[in-house]
Design goal:
CATH superfamily of the largest domain: Response regulator
Radius of gyration: 21 Å
Shape: elongated
Helix content: 40-55%
Strand content: 15-25%
Largest sheet: 5 strands, parallel
Number of strands: 11
Bound molecules: calcium ion
Strand order of the largest sheet: 2-1-3-4-5
CATH topology of the largest domain: Rossmann fold
Number of domains: 2
CATH architecture of the largest domain: 3-Layer(aba) Sandwich
């Protein structure tokens, strides 16, 4: 073994540990990079509407979101919030529950009645549990209890944007092929060697996420958040099982996958070209 090789081997472990930390950190900071088009160009800046009456929180959150590359539009009461949100031009709404003029619950309900389907992240104060449940029933997509860490909010925002139609339909391609597999995203249909392949809804969502974010390494936790969602019960083992099923159904040799690859110590990545 050469001296150089020995040195590399000695450093491999700490390097790997360092990389996985970097990956975890970067996934929070690159919210808008995940919305790249197939050819790699950035579509548009994501636009977030913040409906919140606490001035301090408005300043903290809008500064932080702008630093992350989002455009931020602010409304300080429920009526203005509803008016702005009705335009349907935002990619996400962060909606406080207790607001002057019109409550967050009413804003949420009225938007959904008008078929404005922008994802809504609801902010509730401690002890507003009943409202929380009601909020989800009225069409909020997720909620966060005050006080919260800004990193937590950013993670929720990222997960919601990834799940939203703008991210999964608007910016992505209609079909994708690899090996002898062809995916029609709009019809959620997959063929291998021109024969239909049956995938469960979660297998399809996982495959779609991997393909849309191909050639990047995703940790099991990132995949859980992006595909299953934050409040889902499954653990990281669930990811492994679904990956195994996808390989079984799509890879020529599931034991030596060409496309759905394991990156040891880090997670999985979809490799778009045979290597
Ligand atoms: Ca409030």
């Amino acid at each position: 073994m050469s001296a150089k090789h020995e040195l590399l081997t000695a450093y491999r472990l700490p390097l790997t540990a360092h990389c996985s930390l970097l990956t975890a950190h970067c996934s929070l900071l690159t919210a808008h990079y995940s919305l790249l088009t197939a050819n790699g160009s950035l579509l548009t800046t994501m636009n977030i509407l913040l409906v919140e009456d606490e001035n301090g929180l408005v300043i903290t959150l809008s500064d932080r979101l702008r630093n992350e590359g989002f455009e931020v539009d602010v409304a300080e009461d429920g009526e203005k919030g509803f008016e702005k949100a009705s335009s349907g031009t935002h990619d996400l709404i962060i909606l406080d529950l207790m607001l002057p003029k019109k409550s967050g619950l009413d804003v949420c309900r009225d938007l959904r009645q008008k078929s404005v389907n922008t994802p809504i992240l609801m902010l509730t104060a401690k002890g507003e549990t009943i409202d929380k449940v009601l909020g989800l029933k009225l069409g909020a997509d997720d909620y966060l209890t005050k006080p919260f860490e800004v990193m937590e909010l950013l993670a929720r925002v990222e997960a919601l944007l990834r799940r939203s139609p703008a991210a999964s339909n608007g910016s992505s391609q209609v079909s994708f092929s690899f090996g002898d597999v062809r995916i029609d995203f709009n019809r959620a249909e997959i063929t291998k060697d021109d024969s239909p392949v049956e995938l469960s809804a979660m297998e399809f969502k996982l495959l779609q996420f991997l393909v849309e974010n191909r050639d990047k390494v995703h940790s099991r936790n990132d995949l859980l958040d992006a595909v299953w969602g934050y409040d889902a019960m499954p653990n990281t083992r669930t990811v492994d099982v679904h990956i195994a099923w996808l390989r079984q159904k799509l890879e020529e040799n599931p034991k030596r996958p060409k496309f759905i690859q394991t990156v040891h110590g880090l997670g999985y990545k979809f490799v778009s070209r045979e290597q």
